[in-house]
Structures are given as structure tokens and as C-alpha cells.
Amino acid sequence: MVKSPEEIESMRVAGRLTAKVLEAVGDFIEPGMSTIEIDTFVENYIVNELQARPASKGQYDYPYSINTSPNHVICHGMPSEKQVLKKGDIINVDVTVEKNGFIADSSKMYCIGTVASHAQRLVDITQQCLYRGIQQVKPNATLGDVGFAIQQHAEKNHYSVVREFCGHGIGRNMHEEPQVLHFGKAGQGLELKAGMTFTIEPMINQGSRHIKQHKDGWTVTTKDRRLSAQWEHTILVTEDGFEVLTLRDEEKAAFITEQKR
Questions:
Q1: CA nearest 139: which of 185, 193, 96?
Q2: Dihedral angle of Cα 122, 126, 129, 130, to the nearest 10 degrees
Q3: Which of 120, 162, 214, 215 is least crowded, fewest Cβ atoms below 10 Å from its Cβ?
Q4: Structural domains in the chain, sorted by start
């Protein structure tokens, strides 16, 4: 679980590249586009521009380079020619990049055109949940501290936290120990140590937390078909706190503002 200095530097490289992908998607995505077009763009960008590998493709026999999860899809949405984005949609794009044997993982919500105020609020509060969880990360803190901060902020805003899916350790493999729950009790769970790398990726629902698993074996939606949002970053525990390995330039100001709250 704890990475060496050389492994951490490799994780930083993978993290920077993953951030670049999501920034590039922001310039590309638009109404009228199918989600398979986004997948094709991302795969070409990772392979040809970054000289890296889309780590999701082939993982557990998954056939695509990204997950695309719009509106009431919680996670693991599969790109499709039939799924065409329209103004007012919200969508999560989840990207993993492997470079020199190390993997980083991040996702971002995109608002297609102007979205309804209730949808924008869900997107914003979910990002805040991610940031609140990240702020708990430091040596001797616990994973329970992370989950508690996320759950508290979500429920205070009258949302629910999906419990069937969680963050995870990451490094040479996409999924390593530990599991990072997005709910819990402060002071409980695994104690964090400098050199650990893992994802925090809360999935927050507008209505009930309950899910529906679809027959394709991947797509997960809200049971009540209300909206869901997710944001994700890969985090390093440092000697005195944390480093967000997948932090995008576009969000640095918002992240600093949230840290001051």
C-alpha cells in the first residue's frame, strides 16, 4: 500500500496525464455528441498525444477506454452510439491512464449547455463532498474520517451517499487495497500513512441511495431514476497532509477556496 519515492514520482506522472485528459474532454464535449464519440476521442488522445495507455480498456473485460454516466446513471455507464448528449444533461466521464506501469484514476462532471438549477446544485455539492473528504487526508487520520466528512456534507444538503461502490488503492494495479468508503464514523477504519495512494470518488444521489444494476453487468443507475453525480481524484498521503495527483489546472482556484472553508 505504501509507495516508494520512485513509485510516487511515477504516480505523479500518471496523475498529470489523467488531468490533461479530462481538461481535453472539456474542450471537446458538446450537445449532439454520442458517448462513443467521447470514448474514441479519449482513447486517441491518451495513446497518440500522451503516449500512454487507457487502463480501463480490457480491465475485467471492459471494452471501452472510459465510463460515461449521464443523469440518473450512478457509475460504470458504457459508451454508446445511441446515447446522445442534449442540452441540460449532466454526465460523469471517468478516465484511467497508465504510464510506465503506474495508473491514475479521475472523473469529472460535465454540464451540457445550461442545466436546471437543481442539477447544477447536485453537481456542485458532490464536488464539495469530494473536497471535504480529501481535506481529512493526513498521516494518522483514518478512512472513517474521510467517509464521515463526505456523508455529513451530503446529508446536510439533503442528498444520499451510494454505499455499494467505493474508492480504492491504486498504483501498479487499478484496484488495490484499501477500500475507501464514502460514509462512516470519524476515528474508525484504517489509519493513513505517508506514501499511500488511493482514490476518493463519492457518488451522491438526489433521492434515495438505492441502486439498480443493469443486465449489461456494468451500468448502475439510481433505483428511483433521480439524478446522481460523482467526482474522483487520486490522492497521495504526504508527510504532513495530502497531494491531489490528478488535480486539474481549471479547478485549482475552487479547490483552494474550498480548503479555506
A1: 193
A2: -170
A3: 215
A4: 5-259 (3.90.230.10)
Rg (CA), the chain: 17
Comparing CA positions, the residue from 153, 178, 195 lying closest to residue 2 is 195
What is the grid cell recorded at 128? 464539495
* Predicted pLDDT of residue 210: 97
Q: Are 112 and 90 in contact (CB under 8 A)?
A: yes
User: 217 burial class (0-12, 13-18, 19+ CB within 10 angstroms)?
Assistant: exposed
Distances in Å between the alpha carbon of 226 and those of 4, 110, 123, 217, 222?
43, 17, 13, 21, 6
**Nearest CA among 186, 208, 195 for reference residue 141:** 186
Q: Which three cell numbers stand for residue 182?
A: 464514502
**Total-model pTM:** 0.96
Summarised one tens digit per residue, pLDDT across range 90-102 is 999 999 999 999 9
